[in-house]
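Chapter review: from sequence to fold.
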Amino acid sequence: MRCSNVVFMPGEWKEHECCWMAWPPEQRRNIYPNLDAMRSQYANVASAIAEFEPVMLLATTETVGDATRQCSTNVEVIEQVLDDAWLRDIGPTFVLNESGQLGGVDWQFNCWGDPDSAHQTDATIARVINDLCGATNIPTSIFLEGGAIHSNGDGLLLTTENVVLNNNRNPGLTRLDAERLFAEYLGVEKVVWLDHALEYDDTDGHVDNLACFSDDGVALVLSESDPEDPNYARLRRNIDALSKTTTNGNLLEIIEIQQPARQEYRGERLPLSYINFYIANGGVVLPEFNDPMDQPALEAIAAAFPDRAIVQLPALELTKGGGCIHCITQQQPKSAPSD
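The token string follows.
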């Protein structure tokens, strides 16, 4: 597959071949004091998804046994060197060409704009996964993470300027430059640039905390009803921008999902978002934050996916590490056999 043959990045609700994940390696214990609790929630997510589709879980040599013990027998554990375990960001962004064959866009990775961090191995994981699943590796020059982009599968892409155009990733890159690259590698025809971030988000503002699609014409958007909350204005701007967005000549339908109440960890607000969920074949795996809004979020997302089972899992420990359920997963779409 060549870039010119790439047709589109499929919507996440389309049929999957499998889900890719990674197990938090032991060397991250000094970064994540809650590593054991994080692993427990990783295992719960992997096991839940494995009830709907195959899960391929990368784990370092010293943690293969731990991952195997904690996850269900439906999860396939694959030995692999890792620096960390945010598979959405270090893995490939899968695309299909006009023949339905699989490619994996291999973004440059510099540890969320912190090139001095020890993530050299994670920068190679996209190619590793492409090799494992037989996808054509599609290298790029742009620094990006998978959680920074979201497609409706029909030419419309959501992202944030504060990630894509940040000097810590792509100094000098303009919106037009980025849109041309998205068109080339993802088949994108239109980009909606949303507001930069939640009050605290150490990714600089990944879109998978802000908005996503439940089908090509429906957007689920994080919202806040309290004007005094620091997230209120920025989330309102996202809703306003998406409310004016058209696809196939029709305005997007907007479903607002109220954010949970403020919770802090180590002196900083956690980036809690119900938008950070995973769509599986026949199911949705949704975060729970021990908050009164957990149930309304479940009901709203169940209404958006009426034909899928909804599984809500505790996810606070994941968020203490800096991400959530969508961040630790990457769907591989169903594809045609390679030639």
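Two observations follow directly from the output. The mean pLDDT is 95. The chain is about 25% helix and 30% strand.
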